[in-house]
Amino acid sequence: MILHTSRLPAALAALLAICAGAAEAGDAAARRIIGFSPDGGYFAFEQYGLLDQTESHSGWSEIAIIDTQTDQLVGGKPILVVVEEKKGETPLKQARAEATAQAAPLLAKYSIAARGQRTAADKFTFPDDMIAYGDIARVEQASERLLETVQLEQILADSAKDCSASFDAARQGDKTGKALGFRLTLEAPDGAPLKVLHEDKSVPESRNCPTSYSLSEVYEYRVKGKPSVIAVLVQRFSQGHEGRDRRFIAVTGQIP
Q1: Residue 18, domain extent
Q2: Is residue 2 part of a domain?
Q3: Cα–Cα distance for residue pair 165/39, rounded to 1 Å
Q4: Based on C-alpha coordinates, what's the Rg of the chain?
Q5: Which residues pair with 231 in a beta bridge?
Q6: CB distance 109 to 211 below 8 Å
Q7: Cα(52)–Cα(10) distance, rounded to whole angstroms?
Q8: Total structural domains in the chain?
Q9: Residue 4 within any structural domain of the chain
Q10: What would the pLDDT profile of 9-48 be if each residue is shown by its tens digit?
Q11: How far apart are CA 133 and CA 90, in angstroms?
């Protein structure tokens, strides 16, 4: 496992580590890796959190099951459960339990379990934690776009939603009808491109006009006699009601 830390000052790293461990949750998702199917054909993970803490304590959980050959969601969409806060209940715990129950038949169908190895990670993305609301912007600024042999580039892509307010002043080009997307490239050890794992042609409205993307983790699963399978977790940041939101996108594919 490779942890990239060079871009984050030690004082900020210490502050975020404390906040991440003891924070009340803002609208910043945490994630749980579920794993791969035995043949590497499917990958699953959960992301979860509390919706905009200043307005609601509703808990949510989303489980994505992805066909690694097509990089498409099984059933066309993730399993999403949102539970509103009620007296005497824990909405996040309930939402996670309900999403897990709904996903169980599919996870069993494809025999998805804890398989694979994390081969690279930026630990300062704090993927296991719903980071403190005030720290989301700092995590966004400190994030990496190169992890080992995976390179992320931010690009403009078509969008049905007007995202002009989400662009920084430095971004050049015609932004009309555009939103911020990303391209993910797998590179050889010498830096030569091997394969484009993902390239946005259009940005779905569900991404809520992203302000940036960055890399969190890379997982690999080796299957005897078959190409290895890779799953890359990308952080997506966007503007919420009170500040930045964080969500995860998993990109999967086979390694040449």
Answers
A1: 10-254
A2: no
A3: 44
A4: 18
A5: 219, 252
A6: no
A7: 29
A8: 1
A9: no
A10: 443 343 333 333 333 444 789 999 999 999 999 999 999 9
A11: 20
